[in-house]
Write a structure and sequence with these properties.
By secondary structure, this protein is mostly helical. The longest helix has 21 residues, at 87-107. Helix 3 (42-53) packs across helix 4. The protein has helices at residues 2-8, 23-26, 42-53, 57-66, 70-76, 87-107; strands at 36-39, 79-82. The relative contact order is 0.13. The chain has six helices and two strands, in the order H-H-E-H-H-H-E-H.
Length: 110
């Protein structure tokens, strides 16, 4: 689906953002010009999964054990954005990062 969508819009201006917990495992990274890692501490990840999805600690830990280590993401991604704060703080960090991408697009360096 994403490959077709990207191909259809290839000549159009704009950004396509893919959010995936398994970006590299699924091969979606090969569709991207840049890949960012939205990191969060393990304790905060457990807390958020428990609160937002009602996951038990055991279920959360089993999910996290199946994911790549943070250091591997850092090696594979162009940019890391820490998400240990509030939603408003994350939105501001993303807004700034997207401004950088738009600048790179205008200059032809992406």
């Amino acid at each position: 689906y994403i490959r077709n969508y990207r191909k259809e819009r290839q000549e159009k201006e704009g950004l396509l953002i893919i959010e995936s917990a398994i970006m590299f495992e699924s091969g979606c990274d090969t569709l991207c010009d840049t890949v960012w890692y939205i990191s969060v501490s393990k304790d905060m990840r457990k807390k958020r999964l428990s609160e937002s999805r009602g996951y038990s600690v055991e279920h959360t830990v089993s999910i996290m054990e199946q994911q790549m280590e943070d250091e591997r993401y850092r090696m594979l991604c162009e940019k890391e954005i820490c998400n240990d704060g509030t939603l408003k703080e994350l939105e501001e960090k993303l807004r700034q990062a997207l401004q950088g991408i738009r600048s790179r697009l205008r200059s032809g360096s992406l």
